[in-house]
Design a protein that fits this description.
Largest interface: A-B, 32 and 34 residues
Strand content of chain B: 5-15%
Strand content of chain A: under 5%
Oligomer: heterodimer
Shape of chain A: flat
CATH class of chain A: Mainly Alpha
Radius of gyration of chain B: 24 Å
Shape of chain B: globular
Largest sheet of chain B: 5 strands, mixed
Distance between the termini of chain B: 59 Å
Order of helices and strands of chain A: HHHHHHHHHHHHHHH
Radius of gyration of chain A: 24 Å
Number of strands of chain B: 11
Number of domains of chain A: 1
Strand order of the largest sheet of chain B: 2-1-3-11-6
CATH superfamily of chain A: MetI-like
Chain lengths: 300, 410
Amino acid sequence: MKRFLSSMIDGRGFDIGLVGLPLAFLLTLSGLPLLYNIAMSLQEVDMFSLGSFWRPFVGLKNYRDLFAQPETWPILVNTATFVVASIAGQFLVGFGLALFFWTNFPGASWLRGLFLVSWVMPGLVVGAIWNWILSGDFGVLNFILRETGLIDGNIFWRSDPGFSLWAVIIANIWLGTSFNMILLSVGLSSIPRDLYEASELDGANVWQRFWTITLPMMRSSIGAIIALGLIFTLQQFDLFAAITSGGPNNASNVTQYWAWDLSFRQYDFAKGATISVIMIVFVMIASVVYVRSTRHEVRG
Amino acid sequence: MAIRGSAILGALALAGVSLFGLSAKAEDVTINVWSLDRDIQPAPNLISDFNKLNTGIKVEYRQIQFDDVVSEAMRAYSTGQAPDIIAIDNPEHALFSSRGAFLDLTDMIAKSTVVKTSNYFPGPLASTMWDGKNYGLPKATNTIALYYNKDMFKAKGLDPSKPPQTWDELVDAARKLTDPSANVYGLAFSAKANEEGTFQFLPWVQMAGGSYEHINSEGAVKALDIWKTIITEKLASPDTLTRGQWDSTGTFNSGNAAMAISGPWELDRMVSEAKFDWGVALLPVPEASAERSSAMGDFNWAIFSNTQHPAEAFKVLEYFASQDVRMFKDFGQLPARSDIAIPETGVPLKDAALKVFIEQLKFAKPRGPHPEWPKISKAIQDAIQAALTGQMTSKDALDQAAEKIKAVLG
């Protein structure tokens, strides 16, 4: 007993306790719902059996049915396009802005703070505003494009199957850029100044300094921001609900919106869970890549 | 023994307290009612009036949000915590009645002196039925018709007293009224990929002799072809595909559309916003002699089958039905009753419009009723959108929908 206590205060027990508490927390709050979700995807679920756990087991039927549906592959492709384009856009614009404010001109920190406004706004509000901006007949975006002579006729951003997904991507890039910028600014400011001074003395130009100092030193920040970006884009739901509702004809439908539509509009909870499981697989792959890419990191 | 006896008594007392609620008098029966009505809408007002009557029945009210009605009700029913009475959107009614979650009211209605099924419009009443039995009562109702801008009709040489009667006349009028240079579309309606799209499209199918069970009939294909003509010729905004009825009719009110298909819920806003002379006409039919049809919206009352007090719950429904005369006067909603005249409002445009809507209601048909309505509706929405975006022909799109619906109907 005494040994147990002393190990709890300072020793193996303490270590196990430190690891065990968050692990237990993670298992109950994330692990169990995940497992429940997987179980649900293997069952036949309808609204009247929602309250009980013991429902008819149907094996992989939900998965087979799902992939037999004609809209499944286009929606998966849409999701991939949405994720890649959103992250790329948010990251590039965010990094550009972070570098811009890093030059520390007068008022830079003040302006940088203002940029955060977009991140503070709720998704549904952002969606409603972009809904107006992107409106076909009277939208501001069409007005600007027309006045500058870039287009002749109105583009129906929300209703043209060729544009609707990009309409949501544009709104999502706007929404996520400031968050990228802030995290990358933090990364930039943690790079020791003397590195730049030394390389300048050695005669490195701006490009060389960027490629050989800034980028490598930012590796962990960039890894983190892209991993977070993947999570944020995969859970982006409000913009779809507010701007296109996944339409027209599923042209802007993505898995996260589709899962909700199946579960809560068509009351097909098993299919909704099935899509979620497929999404979990993709997130797992992404997180493995992220963990491996930052494993050998040396901070300094 | 004595201890046991008093323990049982105590348990009973506890159960009594939790059943009837602490605030109710001991002899009162408590009936729980859920609906989405806010404080200015019927349910909470009718309930507070009912409670003042001191009938020995105490009604408790809970407001639920539109998006939560079905999921809350399901969860409550499957865990045995359902209310006694709920207001449910009419296309969802069959989902519950077919699974025995709602109480069969056929006998109670037959014996009732207050509720008579013959007093209701056939469409709303049909939405409460399943397998020939009554599983509820219509709460209120609405339908859609054609709004048109009389000033624009005059300006384009059309007779404002002769709104389009047939589909061809509608398309013709829309062609004449469309004026891109003035930012005016001929028609505004909604083909959105949600229940609103189905709500607007199904009447067209029914007028042409089709139905959701025969969604790829010749008439239905013709209906979708007409919609396609309207969209591809830009007689309506391409945003029709992603815009709901409320936003679409907004463009009519602002003078950017010469006609609009929508329901009586637009009237108050239109009276205050539309700065022109307008009228309402019955939905145009495929050809002059064709059968009329229209959409049917709004909620129904139902009693959950696991209620402890079916007789008392039905008394509450009888009270609600007895107050249907106040439905329009006090709350601006249309009662689903053909025996109740809508009182004049004193606003001439609105009164004329209401007469058309009441006439249109005679032809209103429910969506379904079918327990898997959301899936049927989704198949129809997909077909509308596939055809209107030009990705499929109307025939192919509706064939695909028919295939999906066949799988649902089994």
